[in-house]
């Protein structure tokens, strides 16, 4: 089981969808807290070190970017693979909350059983 992380308590209002413009993919942060792997070409599987990563969600794929020492690295993967990492808890999207969001929702901050980030990664609509 992955270690607990502050993102575990984060929720997103599933009734609000985020859409990327053609030129602007969806960008967010995530935290690697389990084994997240990628393949460079025909090479061996590589493991992304635990810690913060930047995520860009495009129509068919997802790019993860991170720093290791003085190097900036990135990995491109299908959305289905990204969704699998979220589903297993190896990758946790970081969701920021604004106090006015909670007030507008009537104080309800969590939709029971909802996984909007996983649904978004799998291309499912929130409606």
Shape: globular
Major beta-sheet overview: 5 strands, antiparallel
How much of the sequence is in beta strands? 25-35%
Radius of gyration: 15 Å
Question: Helical stretch count?
Answer: 3
* Strand tally: 7
The first-to-last residue Cα distance is 31 Å
Biggest sheet: strand arrangement: 6-5-4-1-7
Helical content stands at: 10-25%
Low-confidence stretches: 10-16, 108-113
The helix/strand order is: EEEEEEHEHH
Can you give the mean pLDDT? 75
Q: Helix/strand-derived class?
A: alpha+beta
Condensed summary:
The chain has helices at 79-88, 99-104, 116-121, and strands at residues 26-32, 36-39, 45-48, 51-57, 61-68, 71-78, 91-94. By secondary structure, the chain is of the alpha+beta class.
What does this structure look like?
There is one protein chain. With 127 residues, the chain is an alpha+beta fold. It has a domain at 19-103. The protein is built from three helices and seven strands. The chain has helices at residues 79-88, 99-104, 116-121, and strands at 26-32, 36-39, 45-48, 51-57, 61-68, 71-78, 91-94. Strands 6-5-4-1-7 form a five-stranded antiparallel sheet, with helices on one face. A two-stranded antiparallel sheet has the order 2-3. Strand 2 and strand 3 (45-48) form a beta hairpin. The longest helix is centred in the middle third of the chain and has 10 residues, at 79-88. The model is unreliable at 10-16 and 108-113 (pLDDT under 50).
